[in-house]
Structure formats: structure tokens, C-alpha cells
Amino acid sequence: MATGCCGTKKQKLNNSSSVPSCNGTSVSNQMVALPEMCFFCFDVLYCHLYNLAPPKTPSFSNDAYPLFVTWAIGKDKRLRGCIGTFNAMNLQSGLREYAITSAFKDSRFSPVTRDEFPKLSVSVSILRHFEDGEDYLDWEVGVHGIRIEFINEKGNKRTATYLPEVASEQGWDQLQTIDSLLRKGGYKAAISNEVRRTIKLTRYQSEKITVTYQDYMNHWNSQRC
Question: What would the DSSP string read from start to end of the chain?
């Protein structure tokens, strides 16, 4: 089940659908995210845009992790699409799926076009080290991503998440981030400390790799030599 990741058009957040429960992964200090994963996402998107056969199976690890794929556009790297999953997926099939889903099915944006392809950059985020927070402030800006579960004003359970980089990129403190995330999750009533204290928070960390179109072309050309 997919969910929108994060950030967004600067300082403007849209509501998101519910996200699935987190699947924890084993703790390891070895890096999982690699540039090859971003190159693969570019390959997948290119083949889809030009109605070509899907790219061959990549050589990077096929272990299972929760993951997100984020497309950005232009020199200022404006968000163009970001969708992922908290369910652990095999990396090869997961990145193949979410490279397309984030480019074409993020409801905040129109589908990515061929003309935009040379202006894109892509980030792959591998989510790890999930922990239950003691309260809504039991996390650190710039270190943790957070997923919150709460009951909205209609009595329905909702969830929403921000990846680790979102709060620091927006210049938010913990309280601003929590309140913004409640709004993203569809909470429309006044936000009080009582509401915040009812939040169930899960914190996590991510490994993030970003590759630009130029990086991708340099890699592709090097493979031809």
C-alpha cells in the first residue's frame, strides 16, 4: 500500500490517504542505498515514457525494506512526485514499482512527461531503525522521520508521515512539524496539546541517495565505453 512521503510544494501540504503499519528491519551499519538504485529508477521511467521493454534486473541487493522514491525537477529541485511504502518490499521490484508510481500517480501533481525527463533528479530513501516514540516529541529534527497515528475529529483513525529531511528543509521545529503532519493527515479541527498527546508516534531513520539527470547520463555513457 502506497503513501505520499513528505514535503511537498514549499509550505503547502495536501491531505494524504492512510499509510500501512511499519515493518521493522534488522539493524545494521552497512549502507543499503546506492547510486545504482537511482540509475535504475531513471531507466524504469525512461522505458515507461517511451513505451520500451522494462530494463533488465539490476545487480544491487534484493533484500526487503520499506522505501520511497522522490522525483524533483529543475535546478531548485522542486518536488515532482513522492510515493513509497512502509511495508518491506524487495528492493528490485519495489523500486521498479515506485519509480513509476511516484512519477505518475502522486495526486498532487500531473504525470511526468517526456519533456521533463532531462530536468529531473531522483532520490531513493531506504527506511530503517523503526522505534516507538514515548510521546509526540520523542524524536529529533534532521535525524528521524516520523509516522503518526491519530483519531480525527470524526472519530476515524488516520496516519501520516514525513521523511527525515522534511522538517529541516522547511525550517520547522518539532511542534510545527507535528501540527503540519496532523493537517497533512486530514485533521481539520483546532490542534491543542490534548490532541497532540493522543498521537501514537513511530520514529525511523533513512538512507537517502540522490542522482541528477546529468549523473544518470554520465553513468549511462560510461557503461557504453
Answer: --EE-S--STT--------PPP------SS----HHHHHHHHHHHHHHHTTPPPPPPPSS---EEEEEEEEEETTTTEEEEEEEEEEEEEHHHHHHHHHHHHHH--TTSPPP-TTTGGGEEEEEEEEEEEEE-SSTT-S-TTT-EEEEEEE-TTS-EEEEEE-HHHHHHHT--HHHHHHHHHHHTT--S---HHHHHT-EEEEEEEEEEEEEHHHHHHHHHHHH-
CA distance 73 to 75: 7
pLDDT tens, 55-113?
Answer: 999 999 999 999 999 999 999 999 999 999 999 999 999 999 999 999 999 999 999 99
Distances (CA, A) of 47 to 80, 96, 211: 19, 11, 18
Q: How far is CA 61 from CA 2, 37, 115, 207, 210, in A?
A: 22, 9, 32, 14, 18
Q: How far is CA 34 from the centre of its chain?
A: 16
Work out the number of other CB atoms within 10 angstroms of the CB of residue 186.
19
Q: Which residue has the cell 518491506?
A: 88
| Nearest residue to 163 (alpha-carbon basis) of 99, 97, 83 | 83
188-209: per-residue pLDDT in tens?
999 999 999 999 999 999 999 9
